[in-house]
Structure formats: C-alpha cells, structure tokens
Amino acid sequence: MLDTTVTLGRSELRVTPICLGTMTFGEQVDEATSHRILDRALERGVNFIDTAEMYPVPPSAQRYGDTERILGSWFRKHPGVRQRVVLASKVAGPSRYDWIGGGVPDLRPERIVQACDDSLRRLGVECIDLYQIHWPARHVPAFGGVYFEPGKLQPVTGIEAQLQALDRLVRDGKVRAIGLSNETPWGVAEFVRIAEQAGLPRIATVQNPYCLVNRVVDNGLDEALHHAQVSLLAYSPLGFGLLTGKYDQRGLNDVDNPGRLAQFESMKQQRWGRIEALQAARHYNAFARANGLTPTRMALAWCYRNWRVASTIVGVTSVAQLDENLDAWGTELPPQLLRAIDDLRWTHRDPAQ
Predict the structure, then answer these.
(1) CA distance linking residue 68 with residue 22, whole number of Å
(2) Label partner for 29 (CA 20 to 30 A): which of 10, 97, 150, 335?
(3) Count of H helices and E strands in the chain?
C-alpha cells in the first residue's frame, strides 16, 4: 500500500507518487470494470486520479466526455470518496477535433471556463483540484512532432489571457491549482514569468510523456521544472504498452493482442507506433529479462524513482494490471543497471518523442 505523498509544485496539493490515469475508461474498459479499478486503487492507497474532457482515447464524438461521466457515477456510488482523492482534469487545447470546442484552432478564455464547467457537471463535483491545459494553444512540437517550425505559428490567445481565465476559475472556487501538459521548457518559463509578473495563479505541474523510449524531458525541460519549482507528472511510463513486452514477438499487427497499439489503427500512426520505438523497446525489454526483472517492473521502477518525477500516471485495463503496476513501486534499480539503461538510450535515443 502506498503510504507516502509529495507536494505538487508550490501548491497545497499532496498526492501519491503513483496516479491512476483514466483514458481507457469508456473505450477499452466498461463502466463496471472502471469502478472496480478505481475501488482497488483507493484500497491500495492511491489518492490521485487524472482525467480529461477529451477522454476516452482514441477520442471520438460518440464517446467524448464518457470518462468523466464514469468517474462521476463512481463518486455518486461512493459518497465521501471525493474528499479522499486529488482529482485532476484537462481542457483540450486548440481543437484537433470538430466535436471539441467547435473545432476552433485557439484556446480562448471563455472556452477554458466553459470546458471546466462542463467537466464539473460530468464529474458531478463542485471543484477540480488540478486543472490543466491539455496541449498548448501555440504551435509546439508535440504528439510526435520533432521540430519547432516558426512558419506554423498563428495568432492565438496569449498566455496571460489563458492565465486570467484560470484565475477566474480559482477565484470562483471551481479549481484549486493549475497545470500544463505536453509543454516545452520555453512554455514553462513563460507561464511562470507572466504569472509572477501579473499576480496570476502559478502552474504547479507539467504532465508530459516520460519513459525509456521517450526521455525528451531530460533534454532541458527537467532543468526548467527544477528551477521553476514545478512538478513533473509523467505519463505513458510504459510507452503505450511497448515496454511491457506484449508486442515483442508478434509486433503491432497481432489482432489477438488486446493492447491499444494492436486494436486501434489510429494509435499505430502515432509516435508509439513507430518501428524504431518498437525496436528500441525490444532492447530494453530483453535487458530487463536478462537482469531478472519483467519489462514492466523495470520500466516503471526507472520512472518511479527518477528524481525528475513527482507522480507517475499509470493507465490500465484491469485490476490485475493495476496491481502489477503498483507492485513495482518497491523496486529499486542498482546504479550499474541505471548506467546500462543510459547506455541503451545513447544508442537508441528517443524514438517515441
């Protein structure tokens, strides 16, 4: 059972170092199973739950918001549970989908406020503890993008206006703390600078991918977070399943594999579906086995004990998967093994960035 907590940034939020991610709820996981996973997480000491208006993933107009609705039904089923958990959600950035925010390629203040109100309604709660911008309004190399391209910059709502909208939510008691996701070092520095300069809420967290096949955080974002006193929430610590070994033998096209990369064609087209990411994962997984560890345990232990990470977000499709992920918490990797992992990174770099 988890018996330790960490403080997120300079906020008052104290969370367990493992967070339950819910992006599978409503697509791969039905409501009853979702409730069982939530019950088990609480039973084992997890007090941190992360969701988003866009979930479940893969996103669709038909299921938009279903994950928050499932969480809302769980809260209604267990009166009093809401006070025991730190609840995080997100407003989608400039819409990549017509059914979110009308498909507007911007993140306007009124959109932030409305999205929060809609999430509160679906969740059936009065306040969201940590409210995050899911991806930046401006052009950034995210979701598999590798390069920043000035030519792709378009006029969008500025950071100060976004912070003013978040400030309104905080002052209205709808949000306790704010954060970002899929953010860059420059973005972190600007959000902190402008907040301090204008007397607006300071970001507490940044939620970015961080795993053995995507360590872009180590390329400068870690420095920005450290000096700004902003906490990292690491998502996809198992690389969308690549680092569990489930794709080692038959690749990503095994129709009998229940994993997302095998079941959803759209997932194969993303960074996690790159052949280079699968090849690198196979090397890490073989290294884990050669050292008496399961691939899952080594990948999670590496993330759990990393000084850069405040809390690691784990997404699961069953209670058994949740238990496996939580059981890895007590694993400490010896220095020589960590050095060998760094050597593997030197060879394979970050194929899933």
Answers:
(1) 9
(2) 97
(3) 12, 10
Tell me whether residue 255 is in a domain: no
Task: Please choose, from the candidates 128, 134, 143, 131, the residue with its C-alpha nearest in 3D space to the C-alpha of residue 100.
Answer: 134
List, for residues 157-188, the tens digit of each pLDDT value. 999 999 999 999 999 999 999 999 999 999 99
21-65 residue pLDDT tens: 999 999 999 999 999 999 999 999 999 999 999 999 999 999 999
Q: Structural domain of residue 213, as residue ranges? A: 6-246+300-333
CATH number at residue 60: 3.20.20.100
Q: What integer is the mean pLDDT of 261-290?
A: 88
Give me the active site residues, please.
Answer: 55
Instruction: Report d(CA 162, CA 113) in Å as an integer.
Output: 10
Has residue 176 been placed in a domain?
yes
Query: In total, how many domains does the chain have?
Result: 1
Cis peptide before 185 (omega within 30 of 0): no
Only one residue has tokens 């990292």, namely 232
Domain membership of residue 129 (yes or no) is: yes
What's the whole-model pTM score? 0.97
Would you say residue 186 lies in a domain? Answer: yes
Sign of the C-alpha dihedral computed for residues 181, 300, 353 and 268 taken in this order: negative
What residue type is 200 in one-letter code? L
